[in-house]
Request: fold
Amino acid sequence: MIAFKETAEKNMNKKAGYYIYLLKKSPLTTAGLIIIGILVALAIFAPLIAPYPQDAAGITHVSEKLLPPGASHLFGTDELGRDMFSRVIYGTRISLGVGTLVVCLSLAIGVPLGLAAGYAGGIIDEVIMRITDIFLSFPPMLLAIVIATFLGRNLTNAMIAIAISWWPWYTRLIRSEAISLKQRPFIEAAKAMGTSRFKIMFRHILINSWSPIIVQASMDFGSVILTSAALSFLGLGAQPPQPEWGLMLNTSRNYFLTAPWYSVFPGIFMFITVLAFNFVGDGLREFMDPKLRRL
Amino acid sequence: MKKISVIIALLLTLAMIITGCGGGPNSGQNQNQGQKSSAAPTKNDVAVYGIHIEPMVFWDPSDSYSNEIIVLQNVYETLLRYDPANDKFIPVLAESYTKSSDGLTWTFKIRKGVKFHTGTELSAQVVKASIERTINRGKGAAFIWSPVKEIKTPDDSTVEFDLSYPAPLDIIASSSYGAYIFDAKTLDEKGEDWLKQGNDVGSGPYAIKQWKNGDSLLLAKFTDYWQGWNGKHVENVLFKVVPESSTARQMLESGQLDFVGYSLPVEDIEAMKNNPKLEIVDKPSFQNLIAFYNTKKAPLNNELVRKAINYAIPYDNIIQYVKGGYAVKSSGPIPKGMWGHRDDLAVYDYNLDKARELLKQAGYGNGGLKLLITVNSGDESERKVAELMKAELSKIGVDLEIQIMPWDAQWALAKSNDPKQRQDIFVMYWWPDVCDPYSWMKSLFYSEKEIVFNMSYFEDSEYDRLVDEAHTQAGIDRNKAAKIYGDAEKILVDKAAAAFLYDQKNVWAKSASLKGFADNPAYPGVVFFYDTYKE
Reply:
């Protein structure tokens, strides 16, 4: 028993060492991970970091409007005198939260459907795949705009709208994995042993096809954040005075010539966030696909 | 049901994509009327007017009730034009007019030798036909003619209006909407679609030449215009849609625009003031911003809560920082400079203690109030006002949810069948259709069976009676009418039917080389290009 535990620990250490080795080989992925780490820390500790947390909630100081970046306001102030640094930091919270929730929601819809389609095949597969085709025939942004317009203008509805336009990708992905896995001997064996369908789907197929999903999800994180910012930019997502990056960008357009810093900071944060998630997604794909692993 | 609506939405989107891509077929080229501009371009060749949205909402001169005013006022003419600064009427298609002592009969002498762009000549019969067409269609601002009982044409150059009650017909005939005189016969023959192809039936100095939907509209001079083309006049006018204010500013600075027809952010205005190539014109306007309280829905059906909110609005900050000082605090709905305006109404000031006290009296001392405010998207001032209100209201325990919506959606929500589904506070500008206090008093607060613009859903029989009385009196004795309007305004202020935020100034940014522009608040946003020239 003790020996068994030791080997397991050794294996773990070996695995961890292996991952560190992989990261060393891929500086971009490392950079992405570090940036995401910082962003997550900013989001969690926003109330401690932001000098004027009330400004993020919408308290205004109009007499200090559009101040350039300086010692008291690191990123300057917006058109109602609110501290941009505080608002951008709180914006991290919103964007990361939106990314997480939307991806989870899409997974929650897409994965079971994909498993069912791939494993059951036949008419169930046909129906589910034709439904995904319908959704995929619209550009995701456009579909999200339509849904958000119908649901009403707020951030929650925007998240639902994005998730609805996003899930078919996961369904397709997991379906193809399921189809290839269900021919494999270990599934045959499980079947022969009388394991329930449900158990086979979730215990054997899902567990063995998680790597492409993780890659896809981490890549999507960035796109989801961008889409939600775009919806907010169009007035269909976050509503003022929420410190959402896309909304801030939209407002800042009007002051672009007099206060250029106003648009720059939310823009930079959005850019960095999306870039970091793409680096990590790319890195993960390389790690998980032996063919792409340039080692 | 939900599924069906989603499918419909999807189909609509598809239709939008298909039609949106085909900008071409919507644009029209006028074959018959447009005058060819001279081959060698001169400075007066073309003046460019920048606007943030498509100006052509209505094409029919009878129905016109929207942005197209900036175009149509140069294409169509009215019997008179009102000059509110001097309270004078300038004869246009009418040479002169008289009214009977009881204010019930108005006689207009019609100008001779006026030609329409269609070739038809102006006569008393044409005047009668166009006004009757507007009345019969009953759209847009047609209601302005409601006092008219009968229109008579004793001879070719005389039009006599018989009214069912005394009313200021000179103001009505000079109205910015609904008062155009046009060639009704040709219009009815050719139909409305013909207008949309870029045609018109006006008598103004310019004819519509070319329209590209969502992009631009070109006017060319009408050579047979009755005032002639001697002297210096702009010959062509291009209306260009420029949605971004920063783009508009850059185009103005680089000489691609001569006039920006919407208010740029005050920050930009301040920066542009020092540019010798540009000119900033600020003049009092008749436009004011009003926040309407839903008097039919809890908690704002409680007068005390409405008053509390009125006390929680930072009026001075709004004027100083949102409007950059280009506005004055409203005293009632009738704006400063309009006859009937009163400075002595007991208006509300920013006073949070009073607001808290009133909320306590209303039983909301512990906060917990949640209100929805809707503002029009694309308007910076409205949004900022809402955000400032939210910040102040949060201090007295009221949570204000802001929804920024396109006008159609904002208005549709306000007209929901169930008052409970409507917003709590509706922010909207008002500017006059008829240059008369009646425009505010009647359209905004007079009891309505079917809601149009009474966004407070205000109902008060005493108020209605006073407004009716004042309107009748205005045709006979304006001073008396002003006094009655004042009494009606007092009811609105006392009952806090709405928050009267500010009367704004028009701030126009134009190139210094465009001369002869005079702002006329009775025709908001309109540049009468015939009066202008470039140097």
Observations:
- Chain B touches chain A through 36 residues (CB under 8 Å).
- The mean pLDDT of chain B is 89.
- Chain B is about 30% helix and 25% strand.
